[in-house]
Design goal:
Blueprint: E1 4-6, E2 15-21, H1 23-28, E3 36-47, E4 52-65, E5 72-87, E6 97-100, E7 106-108, H2 110-120, H3 134-150
Parallel strand pairs: 5-6
Antiparallel strand pairs: 1-7, 2-3, 3-4, 4-5
Bound molecules: zinc ion (ZN).
Length: 156
């Protein structure tokens, strides 16, 4: 399910559009880090001195796997990113630029927005203390105890 920006619009006035991002979209991405969620992307497009300047604000809840108990957990996503859409004949080495052929009519922003969401997920994420799956928590604590015993210095 793409998020299409129609490049034929008149951008002399900034245009803003909102898109809902649901679990189906988030899980349809290959190797998605997200198991679901419910987010809103607000895209503002305006003509800039160089190409079309996009500001993409994405916020909502994402569902990811807890690092400790592997059960689903919610993470808050709130990220704001800039992108510039430039005609391919104006290529220059720059970050955050999408190059399009001059006669391109529309652009799918979903792959970019998915990346912004994925980058906004904290590198490590787990339930707050005591909120993990109790069975897994019990197994984990047993594992930790065993590990500690294993690493004890042998006594002569
Ligand atoms: Zn957990």
């Amino acid at each position: 399910m793409p998020i299409i920006l129609d490049l034929r619009q008149n951008f002399s006035q900034p245009l803003t559009a909102e898109y809902a991002i649901d679990s189906k979209m988030l899980t349809s991405v290959e190797n998605s880090l997200l198991k679901g969620g419910n987010l809103t992307a607000t895209i503002t497009a305006r003509l800039a001195s160089k190409g079309l300047a996009l500001t993409i604000q994405t916020s909502g809840k994402g569902i990811v796997e807890c690092d400790r108990c592997l059960e689903d957990m919610e993470v808050d996503i709130d990220t704001c990113n800039d992108l510039t859409v430039l005609s391919a004949d104006r290529y220059e080495d720059a970050d955050d630029v999408i190059y399009v052929e001059q006669d391109r009519k529309e652009l799918d922003l979903w792959p970019f927005i998915y990346d912004f969401i994925a980058l906004a997920i904290p590198l490590t994420h787990s339930h707050t203390e005591g909120q993990c799956n109790p069975d897994m928590e019990a197994r984990l604590s047993q594992y930790m105890v065993t590990r500690q015993e294993d690493s004890e210095e042998p006594e002569d």
